[in-house]
Specification:
By secondary structure, the protein is mostly helical. It has one domain. 69% of the residues lie in helices and 0% in strands. The longest helix has 29 residues.
């Protein structure tokens, strides 16, 4: 794994793809990146659902470019320091979920679980898809697993 120079953060594109610097963590940068995704999520959660979805879609599209750009600069596909995909993955996980600490914690745990374990087809996407789209897409798939889990839990809680 290529060591990332903090000087890379001077470039705004790298600053974003490296999760505002959270990707520079020597320990669990993906987990720290997901934690750093929570404050922007709290802002996004104030939006009506249609605007939230649009914002996440735009963040995904921008992420394809950002992650590919930083990956090329580092000379390494999907370097662990690139965590914009974790940001977007967490935001997908939290679609139409209450922005309370309990649901945020549940979403955080579920997203990290599916992003780390990589059940089918997440693992296939992670191994086979390259470039910025590949970096983003496996996290989108992991987030969809987490989203479904949260939505089931939400329905169960609301039916009691």
């Amino acid at each position: 794994m290529t060591k990332i120079s903090p000087r890379l953060l001077r470039n705004p594109l790298h600053f974003l793809s490296l999760g505002f610097g959270s990707g520079l963590s020597p320990f669990a940068p993906g987990t720290l990146g997901t934690l750093f995704a929570i404050p922007p999520y709290l802002l996004l959660a104030q939006l009506p659902l249609a605007y939230y979805l649009l914002a996440v879609l735009v963040a995904f599209a921008i992420g394809v470019y950002l992650c590919g750009y930083t990956s090329r600069a580092l000379g390494e596909h999907d370097h662990s320091g690139i965590v914009w995909d974790e940001f977007v993955g967490f935001w997908i996980t939290m679609i139409a979920v209450p922005a309370t600490w309990q649901w945020i914690l549940a979403g955080f745990v579920l997203f990290r679980l599916f992003d780390i374990v990589k059940p089918w087809p997440v693992k296939v996407a992670d191994e086979k898809m390259k470039g910025g789209f590949g970096i983003m897409f496996d996290d989108v798939l992991a987030a969809l697993y987490a989203l479904v889990g949260l939505q089931i839990a939400l329905q169960l809680v609301n039916s009691v």
